[in-house]
Structures are given as structure tokens and as C-alpha cells.
């Protein structure tokens, strides 16, 4: 039985664990956090990823946890409505699409439960070193005793420790523009009913905020973004909050009120808009999955779908190759690289033009996610493994 260590327990890692377990592999998953992480933004299961969810038997439950928004508004600094739609939203696109917008922690919980109790989870720890050998890969951890595995998968996000250890510091990391974005949970102080509101402080869309109701209108997910001018982002959460507050100082609409609740948020997440571009996704017995290997950034709207499809294909190719990792990793890349590149390219197309005026930005938002994007999300056809 091939022993596989997966680093990262958000979406990509548990999805891969599900499929590897079904294909007869022995799976251990290590996660730096003390448990499954709460919070996170609303994410989308689109196109081919819907068929992965269907094959996992979780699509109906994912739909049952959908955000179910009725529409969205864009407002000016005084709260006056500049644009309104009951056909699409900023975060999820067309409301009549088969795609599903769901909270990241809800989706993770659904997938983990589906994976079952044969998966070994190691929380509060992370990989320290990797030593690849002819008969396995020796892994030391920050806390746990060393162990040897047949394969290691880095599914640990855009700032992947696994990628750093194998490919070098900042390998493949490409900031998209000088902007940082945050998301957190807060009470529904605006009294919204399955609705989303966005406010842009400047015409280019690099500063502003958005809120949307979740969990039967009992909560808001608040998003905020500001032009960061390339400054390094702090790792300490309190410093991140101060940086965001400073970056949005003087912002209008309800932004000051949102920031008041930010200080108490336990699930605050903050990062730059960035992608990951690598010439290859594997080296030796180590392979990267999802954002760790080919992050599209939140601007792509496809991070979750690429993670789920990638997990399905990686597990399937390992099964097809009877555990021959060299053959499987090459096939995994051959299958997905063109589709991944197309998704990443759409992220760049989706960024607002820095020279756009407010009217152009609102018109662009009103167009929602176009037919080209929908075609791309469905462009990869799943193989049967």
C-alpha cells in the first residue's frame, strides 16, 4: 500500500485524500492549524468541478449549503445605489448558472466527512524537511517524530511550505498588482436579506469593500481591498489588521463600520493578489496541488474548482500508474496544464483596468461572468480512472 503524506487541509488536500483512499492508498494529512480552519471567503464550485463533486456523492449537500443570494448592488460613498442586479453577483456570477457558491469552511467540512475515518489527520504541525531517497521520502516535522512516506503532496496554499522546501523560496510566486485583500465574518449589522453590496473607493477597483449575507442572513462575510504599493505583508494578524485599517483610512460608505468588527474577527484572512507559475509541478517524490502549484488568485474565480479537479486527476493518474509516481506526475501535468493556463489567463482578463473610470468599472461588473468564462470552466473533460 502506497503511503502518501498531504500537507494542507482546506479543499485540495481533503479532496485528494478522498480519492486516494478510494483508490487504495494510505493517506496522512498534516495541517499547521490546530484543527480545520473556520471562516474564509465564499468560493465557487464550477463547471468540471461540479462533476467531481457529483462523483464524490456530495453535490446535493454542497447545493444545500449554497449562499443563495438574490442579487447585488454597487453603491457610492453615501450609499446611493449606482447599479443593481438580480441576475448576477460580484462574487458568484450569474444566478441562473448551475455553478454553486458556498462558504469555504462549509465545503471543506462536507469533503472531510465524505472522505471518512480512514484518513489520518495530524493537526498543529507542519513539514520541516524533506529528504528524497530511492525507496521513499524521509519527512521531519516541526513537532511530530520523523516518518518515511512513498509520496508527499503539497496542498498548502499559495505560500506553500512544501513548494519552498522543494523548489526554493518564492518559487513561481507572481503578485498580480499592488493590492491586498482581506475577508472576515461579522454580524449582519446592515440587515441584508440574501444580498450583496459592493463599494469601490477608486475607479480602478483596487480599494473598497463588499459584504454578503451568509448562514440564513445571520452573518456577513466582509471583504476589503486596498492598493498596497508593493509593501511586504506582515505575518502577524494584528499587524495585518492595522495595515488594512490604515490602507482604508478615510474610506466612505459603511467601510469604517466594517473595520470596527474586523478587530474582533477570529477568522480574519489577509493576503496579496497573486498567482503561482512553475515550469513543473513535481520533483522526485513530491508533487504540488491546487494553489500551491498553480494558484489562479481570487481574481480567477476558479481556485476551488482547479483544486478539486486537480485532486481527482492526480489521484486517478496515480491509480492508473499503479503508484509509479514519475509516470503519474507527468500524466497529471499533461492532463491539466493547458486548462490551468487558461484559468490563470482569465484572472488577468478579469482584473479591472487601472485606467478605467467609475462608469466603465460598473459596466464591467454589470456584465458578470461571460459565456467565454463558462465555456472555459467546462473545457476540461474528466477521465474515468
Which tags fit this structure?
6-stranded mixed β-sheet; globular; 28% strand; alpha/beta; 385 residues; 12 helices; 7-stranded mixed β-sheet
Q: Could you outline the blueprint of secondary structure elements for this entry?
A:
Layout (H helix, E strand, L loop, with lengths): L2 E5 L4 H11 L3 E6 L10 E4 L2 H9 L2 H6 L6 E5 L5 E5 L2 E2 L3 E2 L5 E4 H12 L4 E4 L3 E7 L2 E6 L5 E3 L1 E4 L6 H7 L5 E15 L7 E6 L7 E7 L4 E9 L9 H11 L7 H8 L6 E8 L5 E2 L2 E3 L2 H4 L8 H18 L4 H26 L7 H9 L4 H7 L8
Parallel strand pairs: 1-2, 1-13, 2-9, 4-15, 13-20
Antiparallel strand pairs: 3-8, 4-5, 6-7, 10-11, 11-12, 14-17, 14-18, 15-16, 16-17, 19-20
Helix pairs in contact: 1-4, 1-9, 2-9, 9-10
Largest sheet: 7 strands, mixed
| Alpha-carbon distance between the two ends | 18 Å
Number of helices: 12
Q: Enumerate the spans where pLDDT stays under 50 for 5 or more consecutive residues.
A: none
Radius of gyration: 21 Å
* Oligomeric state of the chains present here: single chain
DSSP E strands, number: 20
The helix-and-strand class reads alpha/beta
Principal-axes geometry comes out as globular
What portion of residues belong to β-strands? 25-35%
Q: Average pLDDT across residues?
A: 90
**What's the arrangement of strands in the largest beta sheet?**
5-4-15-16-17-14-18
Give the proportion of residues in helices.
25-40%
